[in-house]
Amino acid sequence: MPKDYACSECELTISIGSYHGYDGEYITAMYCRHCGAQYYLQQSTSQFYAGNEQTEEEIALYTVRGPACIQDIVVSEHEPTPSLICDNCRVEGQFGSAGPITDRPPEGFGDDYDPFSGSDSMPVGICPGCRSRTMKFQDEWTT
Ligand SMILES: [Zn+2]
Ligand SMILES: [Zn+2]
């Protein structure tokens, strides 16, 4: 279930997390950690559930919907991981969570941050848009 984070300084809101799309595909909401642009990664549900298990084709197909462009990404076991360029700020980096376009929480939250862990203190992260430490978890939405 995707989670929203919002910045009180520049009013940027980003969503992160996976959900089922209306057309039966699996969507992962992501953002660019350099500028805060929102992205949606689309893949088939069967591919999503296959995870890292080998598929017969040994390739995985993804569609990345950005603020301006739609990019098709092919990840093959026998090729280096493709790179991705942000539509908005043009930063280039490896496709995947460790790259510039990621589904990990903003800087300051920790990769496995869980807003429902029961801890009293709500962390404040760094906004990918304006770089202020004003990014807070806002909401989780169900699909
Ligand atoms: Zn901001
Ligand atoms: Zn960017």
Top keywords for this entry?
globular; binds zinc ion; 143 residues; 39% strand; eight-stranded antiparallel β-sheet
Describe the structure.
The chain has one helix at 45-50, and strands spanning 3-7, 13-20, 25-32, 38-44, 59-65, 70-76, 83-85, 92-94, 101-102, 135-140. It is mainly β. The chain has one domain (3-140). The strands form two sheets. Strands 1, 2, 3, 4, 5, 6, 9 and 10 form an eight-stranded antiparallel beta sheet that branches. A two-stranded antiparallel ribbon has the order 7-8. Helix content is 4%, strand content 39%. It contains one helix and ten strands; from the N terminus they run E-E-E-E-H-E-E-E-E-E-E. It is globular. The structure holds zinc ion (2 copies). Residues 32, 34-35, 37, 86, 88-89, 91 line the site of one zinc ion (ZN).
- In this structure, how is the largest beta sheet organized? 8 strands, antiparallel
Shape: globular
Low-confidence stretches: none
Helix content: under 10%
Helices, strands, pairings?
Blueprint: E1 3-7, E2 13-20, E3 25-32, E4 38-44, H1 45-50, E5 59-65, E6 70-76, E7 83-85, E8 92-94, E9 101-102, E10 135-140
Antiparallel strand pairs: 1-2, 1-10, 2-3, 3-4, 3-9, 4-5, 5-6, 7-8
Residues 32, 34-35, 37, 86, 88-89, 91 line the site of one zinc ion.
Short summary:
The protein is mostly beta strands and 143 residues long. It is built from one helix and ten strands. It is 4% helix and 39% strand.
